[in-house]
Design brief:
Helix content is 30%, strand content 27%. It is an alpha+beta fold. The chain has one domain: Alpha-Beta Plaits (2-Layer Sandwich), CATH 3.30.70. It has a four-stranded antiparallel beta sheet. The radius of gyration is 16 Å and the shape is globular. It starts with a strand and ends in a 14-residue tail after the last strand.
């Protein structure tokens, strides 16, 4: 059963370009080190928040980390705590350094009524 770790934020004012560049570096790092450092991650999805009617970007971003389970989420967080050993290079690409701290918001989502879910995704 998957578990979602969801993070909302806005980049620090005046550092939007640096934020975007760091997000690119972060994605490349995660892609390269997924099997070694992030094996519990089933997916990572990145969105920009937009106005419902205009589609204009509000300045806010959202990232969804899908874990194999809540237990996997907890195991990963415990293993990464303090960024030991192989996690040390992660600090160099962690985009949180460009987040406006007072806009950062976390949520955790556990599946519910999964047997009733519907999916019409076409590849």
């Amino acid at each position: 059963m998957s578990f979602l770790d969801v993070v909302f934020w806005e980049p620090r004012n005046g550092e939007e370009k640096e934020h975007d560049a760091m997000m690119d570096r972060w994605f490349a790092f995660v892609q390269e080190h997924h099997d070694e450092l992030f094996p519990e991650w089933l997916s990572v999805r990145f969105y920009k928040d937009v106005d419902r009617d205009s589609g204009e970007h509000t300045g806010r971003f959202v990232i969804l980390f899908e874990y194999d389970s809540h237990e996997g989420f907890l195991a990963y967080k415990k293993r990464r705590d303090g960024y030991p050993g192989p996690y040390q290079p992660y600090l160099e690409v962690d985009p949180v350094q460009f987040f406006q701290n007072d806009t950062k918001y976390l949520q955790w989502w556990m599946p519910e009524k999964k047997a009733k879910w519907m999916n019409w995704t076409k590849s």
